[in-house]
Amino acid sequence: MKKISIVFLSLFYCLTATAQLAAWDFTGENAQLSSVADISSPELSFVPVLSRGAGAQPSSAVNSFRTTGFQNNGLDPSNSDYFEFSLAASTGYRLSFSSISSRMNGTASFAAAPGVSHQYMYSTDGNTFFPAGSVIVTTGTNQVFTVDLSVIPGLQHITAGTTVTFRLFVSGQTSTGGWGYFSGSAGQLGLAVEGNLAPVSGIPLLQVSPPVLTDFTAVQGNISAEQSCQLSGTNLSGAVNITAPAGFEVSGQSGNGFSGSVSVLPVAGTVSTTIYVRMNTTLPGPQNGVLSFQSAGASPKEVSLQGLVLRPEPSSHVSGFMMMGSSASTITTAWTDAGGSVPPEGYLLKWSDAGFAAILPPADGIPEPDGPGRINIGQGIQTVILGGLIQNRVYYCRIFPYTNTGAYIDYKTDGLIPEISGTTAAGAWEDFETGSKTGYAAGNVTCSAGNWNLTDALLGTDANDRKNGVKSVRIRNGYAQMNFDISNGVGIVQLYHAVYGADANGTWKLEASNDGGNTWGYSSAEVISSSTQLTPAIFPVNMAGNVRLRIIKTDGGTNRINIDDITYTQNAALPVKFAEVKAQRVGNAIRISWSNLTETDMLSYSAQRMKANGAWEELVSVKAAKNDGGRADYQYMDQHPAEGVNLYRIEANETDGKKLYSVILRADTKNTETGISVFPNPVTEGVFSLQLNGLARGVYQAGIYNLSGQQVRQMVISNKGNNETEMISLPAGLKPGLYTIRINTENGPLNKLFLVK
Question: N or C, which end of the chain is more exposed by having fewer CB within 10 Å?
């Protein structure tokens, strides 16, 4: 959340220079039962929380803290439809209020003329409420109003120990109305409380600045540079005891004397000194904690510490780097993971058709994201297919191991860098250059690879057909289906697609059959054709035996698409095809379940959970059950999950020593609010885990939408309850950007915004 006071001042037109006591940015929130303040004065005795009365039910409106329970029943303090929050001063301070500013939004009919009436009321005992300023009336949605509290004597100079509770009562123009606080963009505050917290003379008082120290960094085995904070205190009767969290050290002097704790003695009841902090731990990864300050009679203070222990550069390169095979548009590469004292966390694989010299080594601190001629691969994935290549051309590859990420990424570029070269095959398996079919009526035509059935489809040859050569398939609202089989199985299928002429986008998918087209055992996620340039799409069919393919239009419209140049890899079926990877809370335990749809040549599976230091620990190892090419189902019950967020994955161990990993599942044992969450966010590998929080058991319709509101995938989710988490795959070829997953419930839709990289 953005915590920039000047944004609030410009948006809410505050007239005073008093400090911000508490404020809320509702960006990314919806249907939450409560909302913790994003900005909170350290001199408050607790961080304020916004909640609702019993008669105000949560609304799923995005970027909002809204309710559907507000009525047109007046502004009576006995009503139960209200918003509520409380503030109280810490020991040694007096609390005075100057204003409350609110940005409100909701249902247009609820806010229609003559408008919505708002009335803040306050209480110092939690029972009796008094008006806090006059009634405010606004007309229309997305309205801002400010209430002046500085003229109310009961809200000035409030001593510690007294909690002030505010309630906002609302009355609109319909019997029910979606109405509440709103943030129109990130950093825009929907609710803010202004005032001041003045120290009280004679009471022991501690002050520490700044409240947060960030960016401690060190390479594993080393100590970070020190940072400092200023400590002051008055009216103290004893020492100030300062305690560092695990992984950090503290000292009263720069450069030496660091330990887990230090004490500072006051002089005549006063302390004014500099405290130094540094990070000292051998654990790699993020290091967070709280530096605590305590003295008798004074409210304790804290400084939040945030650091990162970096791993050293990888100690060695991969071995056995080789090219396993190629098609007209793909090259399959493989290697054995690098070992040594510092194994890598990932690899950057780069390729070029211009020679090894054209592949420049990456620079430390400058990550190279996936793009033309480069791809990032995690440790443990030792086979990668490079797609979208040009037929009959030599390609050169080099691979660089690395540790860390972002601005701290550390590539190994010294020593003998592994490199290979190879040539793609000549020609596509099916280029549709042979045969003729000029009408959309269903019919068969013999093309380059064999005989195809084209239903509401033809072989296009005009200038609006996107094609390599002189022909491609044009599909209107039908399909192109093989009338023959590919023997010995199909691994990876690649084809090229585009929109025809100036037609609108078209949606389609690839299907594969083992029984001559009677049933379609493989069905890809839907693909959207939106470009007028032929674009490659890759599908992991991984189906053994006799296989035939079908490209079928799915949007039901008459906008046309072109399909051209189909290639495939043979006998490349992967032993692991993960499906239905789920995590489900069962009482105090978490059940992990997974399926391998094509279990072949498998040794075992390992259910793993991430530890606090970022390393993976094995919970259980399970031997492969079938290895017959069919489906095999497994599950494991974690009886002792960590409190809060747990991250799980499944490691699949093949008989040849290769390891493959499932999507990472996120299971939160503490989350009791109704809603959905996406992990990881941003989504980087086309797969994410979706946690369903507080939803009743049942079957739900769901969809993924782009920012234009266009649905890019439709799905059905079967929820067994208990905050279930399951794997969701994105459509092949989905462009990077912001998307929303929406689940329709009986109480309205649940939405979650996520980023695809």
Answer: C
